[in-house]
Amino acid sequence: MHPSTSTAASLWIFGYGSLIWNPGFSFAERRKAHARGYARRMYQGNTYHRGDDNLPGRVATLIESEDEDTNGVAFRVEGTTAIEQALKHLNEREVGNGYVFKLVRVAFDLSESRNNGSSDAGSVSSMSDSEEDRSEGPDYSTSILALTCIASSSNEYFLGPAHPMEMAAQIGAARGKAGPNHEYVLKLAENIRALFPQSEDSHLFGLEKRVREIVKRERRTTM
């Protein structure tokens, strides 16, 4: 499926994985946001960016979960040309690796302030200054539809759930064209923690802890 952009002047794109710090497309605005009814899980296999055919890496996808929401970043892309370029990029980067386009209901975060600067990449942790006196969490009184990419269990690369130690071991060992799989997981956890200090993503942060232990142990053995 390729979304039609012939009459669209504006498109919101929701990123919950590496798009957070490396969108790869131009945008007019980015805001902290939450996708309601979804949980982020490292269930999708990757044999190019973060793994190979012999040892697939694990990357994030969204799993339907009625009582949860997934935090991330919503990018507003303006103009037909920019939208088409963004969709082409996502088609090559995500759809070519087992994902499909899907519209999800997204609510902006209460704590964030708008960042209207256009950009192509970079960390999103600079989106807002110190906001200790402001609330954090989704504002579901207002929400939008945003395009995202989701890898379902029916795609050929899907690895699915496993014991956390097994998943951490896979992540610690896999490496792809974009670098080691552990780098992806640690960077995602760091970005989520920086953007959402009160986040309680036990799946991601639990894997992060185990992966750090594996990386630390491997570094000791190579010294």
Automatic annotation (TrEMBL):
TM stretches of this protein: none
Principal EC category: lyase
Catalytic activity annotation: glutathione = L-cysteinylglycine + 5-oxo-L-proline
Protein name: glutathione-specific gamma-glutamylcyclotransferase
One GO-annotated biological process of the protein: glutathione catabolic process
Pfam families found in the cross-reference section: ChaC
GO cellular component: cytoplasm
Disordered, as annotated region: 114-139
Annotated family: Belongs to the gamma-glutamylcyclotransferase family. ChaC subfamily.
EC number: 4.3.2.7
Compositional bias of kind Low complexity: 117-128
Keywords attached to this entry: Lyase
CDD domains reported for this sequence: GGCT_like
GO molecular function: glutathione specific gamma-glutamylcyclotransferase activity
